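Hey, resending since the last one bounced:
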Amino acid sequence: MEERNNLYPVFLKVKNLEVLIVGGGNVAEEKLTFLLKSSPDANVTIVSPVYRDNTIALAEKFGVQRIHKKYNKRFLKGKHIVIATTDIPKVNIQVYKDCRKKSILVNVADNPPYCDFYMGGIVTKGSVKVAISTNGKSPTTAKRLRQFFEEVIPENIDDLVKNLNEYRKTIKGDFEEKVETLNEFTKGLIGKKEVANDKD
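The structure tokens again:
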């Protein structure tokens, strides 16, 4: 039987959530960069006894709170999402166990069995955002797909989205009629004459 990706994609308003990154090294910087590139208004705290200079500069630029201490489970208080990035497996697994006890979503970098979620490839063009997942198996493939979508999604896609949103407000009828009208109106966006099972 062919393996499938059973992950459920969601788009989180991380401005409204408390995110904790444990660790201050290269991986922490990579995860922080990834998060802030997608969500510059993310509410992030990072805890580590030491930090790389680039991580400090990034944290200061985006208002990320830094705690200069070793990890302790008390730092999980009030947190919704935690990303463990230390180079000490024992610490990362302890973070995972502590988060599970408190029902906090956790990602242990580069360790899929200790992840409630993965941080996939992301393409953003204005209001349009595409997230790419390889089920935690190949970040390189996700990266290549991201580059592909960055090229093929037109730069003016945001204008189209805004115009369609305005047009949507003017359509009369019930939900099903609006969906049908928008389906007909947007068929030309893809190179097919028929768009089956399309939902607004």
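The radius of gyration is 20 Å.

Sorry for the duplicate.
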